[in-house]
Design goal:
The protein has 384 residues and is of the alpha+beta class. The chain contains eleven helices and 21 strands.
């Protein structure tokens, strides 16, 4: 096994495509999914200025904001954004199927972030990426490692598909029980959310740095970053707020719903803790106990609600919601027996998802263990 630089076994491709793009797959940064080795999204829209060409089996690396960890192998020829670096293996030095895993790993992304320049939208150049060092075995062993890693990845994709199927089943069950709310084909008496729930906006003291702390002194300061993707609940906070700063914020308690009104706007979470929220949140409180919590969560995260929020949100670049807009969402209040029946189904589905996610986490750990053992230079080897 020897140590090489990326530029010794792979090259940046700068081919351009200036012909008619009709029928040509188009890939932008938005089509690269963080931490995913395989490209699963693209479009065929020719209304763009992209000219950078890639070929099947090239690796597409998102060089802008490398901390987002976007890189994927191309399953076909196409055209991509200039903010994507196209990397191709040198066939005589690197087994091509191994290249995606050399690029799509935390060690490489950490290196890329460290070499990025720019404050608002940092980018990294190939001239820096090509100096990334890693271990490389002989070609025969490279092939075996690649086969193992792709086998693990295939299993990961299967579990991800099962997770998606479980989510789809929950959505189907919701529509089966309560109908398509955009058509109201169950003929509910729809009412504005503002008539059913207390809706208030959070607040932030100024200057915020004076009141927010990482120490245990203070009470929970609940930020957007405390919400975990894929989770229904918010269970803890990274920061606290001093008591003197709470006068200009808003108190929330377990059982309240939080709705993000900016960034990933319109996404609901159920609180499991008390604390105070900043002005990036709206709090929704079921003061009249009209809803089962899991039913209301599913309602607020449904396509019906998402489409309404998307249509009503203010701002052309960064979308924002406010309590008046959210309060206009028309919702049903089904009998509690039906709500509880649905919630039981959702709870059972969540148990299945938890088991699937555990297996997926094990596969992710196994993939990283193989990459670390076979390819990554440890810190002692680097002399750090």
């Amino acid at each position: 096994m020897s140590t090489v630089k990326l530029g010794e076994v792979a090259t940046e491709c700068k081919d351009t495509y200036k012909d008619d793009k009709t029928g040509m797959p188009i890939v932008g940064l938005e089509h690269l999914t963080p931490n995913e080795v395989t490209l699963s999204n693209w479009n065929m829209n020719t209304d763009n200025t992209f000219t950078k060409m890639f070929r099947k089996d090239d690796v597409l690396f998102g060089r802008r904001r490398a901390y987002l960890k976007k890189a994927a192998v191309a399953p076909f020829n196409g055209v991509c954004s200039g903010d994507i670096t196209v990397i191709r293996a040198k066939d005589d030095k690197l087994f091509p199927d191994l290249l995606p895993f050399i690029i799509q790993n935390d060690d490489f992304f950490d290196y890329a972030v460290g070499k990025s320049a720019g404050s608002l939208s940092p980018r990294v150049k190939w001239s820096h990426l090509q100096n990334y060092e890693f271990n490389i075995p002989d070609m025969g062993h490279q092939k075996k490692i690649a086969e193992l890693l792709w086998s693990i990845n295939d299993s990961r994709l299967a579990y991800q598909s099962l997770l998606q199927d479980t989510d789809a089943l929950v959505k189907f069950r919701f529509i089966e029980m309560f109908g398509d709310l955009s058509k109201n084909n169950k003929c509910y008496d729809l009412k504005p959310l503002s008539e059913l729930l207390l809706i208030e906006r959070g607040g932030s003291p100024r200057p915020i740095e004076k009141y927010v702390t990482n120490s245990s002194a203070g009470v929970n300061w609940i930020k957007i970053g405390d919400a975990v993707d894929g989770s229904i609940y918010i269970t803890h906070t990274k920061e606290k707020i001093k008591l003197e700063g709470t006068k200009k914020s808003r108190y929330v308690e377990p059982g309240d719903f939080l709705l993000s009104n900016s960034m990933s706007f319109g996404r609901p979470y159920i609180l499991m803790i008390d604390g105070y929220i900043h002005d990036g949140w709206l709090v929704l409180r079921d003061k009249n106990h009209l809803f089962d919590k899991l039913f209301l969560y599913t309602l607020l995260s449904s396509e019906y609600a998402k489409n309404f929020f998307q249509t009503m949100a203010n701002g052309s670049v960064v979308k924002n919601l406010n309590k008046d807009l959210v309060g206009k969402l028309l919702v049903p209040v089904p009998e509690m027996k039906l709500q509880l029946e649905f919630s039981e189904f959702l709870s059972q589905s969540d148990k299945s998802k938890f088991a699937l996610q555990d297996s997926l986490n094990d596969l992710n750990s196994l993939m990283w263990a193989v990459i670390s053992k076979e390819l990554i230079i440890n810190h002692e080897q680097k002399g750090e």
